[in-house]
Amino acid sequence: MRIKRLSVIFFLVGMAGILSAQSVVKTSDLFADDDRGQFELRQPAELDTLINRHILANQNRFKVNSHYGMEGYRIQIYNNNTRNARDESSSAKANFMNRFPDVASYQLYADPGYFRVRVGDFRTKAEAVKLFQRISREFPSAYIVPDIINFPDLNIR
What we know:
Elements: H1 2-21, H2 45-57, E1 63-64, E2 67-68, E3 70-80, H3 85-99, E4 105-110, E5 114-122, H4 125-138, E6 143-149
Antiparallel strand pairs: 1-2, 3-5, 3-6, 4-5
């Protein structure tokens, strides 16, 4: 009986320590504080708890190579693991940049020894298909792959 009480006490103290180590985010902190006007947010305190849980659950879900992104699609134009794959991938990227200067391109490395070149940042597969039809004439081995893409610039109109 005494051991049971001690174990419950240790459990509660341990949980209190873990919960106090997590940072708490309030919804009002998510909005930028600027001089354009007043902003008053009225909501139940439980909503802050739900938002905190969501932030903690998704904290590192979309982190790739020390940058954050979102789920989307890219077009892979090169993938190889031969001895001179690094030089070939650089050449493929340069060739792509000459033919399509307005599309972002990324040279990637994946274990075990694969060098890849992926292009574009598309939120939907339909967006990727439009460019894929143009690219596939120049790069016949290209195909669409799901990837973590950079956040789109929503200020472009």
